[in-house]
Amino acid sequence: MKVERKFPEYLKRANNGGLLVGFIYVLVFMSILFLWIWQTFETENDKSLLNTIDERLNLIEEQINIVDETNNDTITDISSSIQFLDKEVRKLWDLSNKRNKVNIQKLSDQAIKIEEILQKLQTDVDNNQTNLLKMRNSIETNMQNIENLGLSEEDLNSIRMNISSIDTQLMLLDDTVQALNNYKNQLNQTILEIQTQISSSEDLNSVQANEN
């Protein structure tokens, strides 16, 4: 007859306690592992979003520089045209009647050219204002994304500096658009003066022709 061997009760309790402790250790380890994976994933997402925002800010800055360069070229062309017209109008007063017809034609041609420049200028102004609106909307969107990121203070300060720089450039671009509008008004006035001079000269030539 086989005798069954009985283990003391304290050994059974110790065995059960060891299993429970082991199970708790496994749970703690899995929790730490999950937390590490989640933090790594969130960090990568934050970096990706931060890079996207930085790329958008750089793109906006490049667009501002391009628009500003185009505006400067346009203003230079318009300034040259206005100076030329001013000289031609002054010359008209000193020319003899025989040469008036030739110069009237020159002024008429120049007036047509200025009107074409004026149309292009209006298109540039409209495009610039549209670009300004898009840039401001993009900056506002980026600011909302930044606020939801939960970034470090250093990253936030860096982004704030970039946005502040872009805001400054936008204000300068606003000034440029205003300058373009002023040039446009000046061109309108110049064309009006030229047309008045042309009409006066033509009337004078007509009277002289009738007298002869």
Question: What does the model show?
Answer:
Keywords: Membrane, Transmembrane, Transmembrane helix. This is Putative viral A-type inclusion protein. The N terminus is likely disordered. The chain is 92% helix and 0% strand. It has 212 residues and is an all-alpha fold. The chain is built from three helices and no strands. The protein has one domain. The relative contact order is 0.11.
> What's the SSE pattern?
HHH
Instruction: Please mark out the parts with pLDDT under 50 across 5 or more consecutive residues, or reply none.
Output: 1-5, 10-16
- List the total number of helices: 3
Mean pLDDT: 65
End-to-end Cα distance, whole Å, is 159 Å
Proportion in β-strands: under 5%
- The rough form would be described as rod-shaped
Q: What is the count of β-strands?
A: 0
Count structural domains: 1
| Sheet with most strands | none
Rounded radius of gyration (Å): 39 Å
Helical residue percent? over 70%
Helix-strand makeup class: mainly alpha
Transmembrane segments: 20-38
Keywords: Membrane, Transmembrane, Transmembrane helix
Protein name: Putative viral A-type inclusion protein
Question: What is the element layout, followed by pairings?
Answer:
Layout (H helix, E strand, L loop, with lengths): L8 H86 L2 H51 L5 H59 L1
Helix pairs in contact: 1-2, 1-3, 2-3
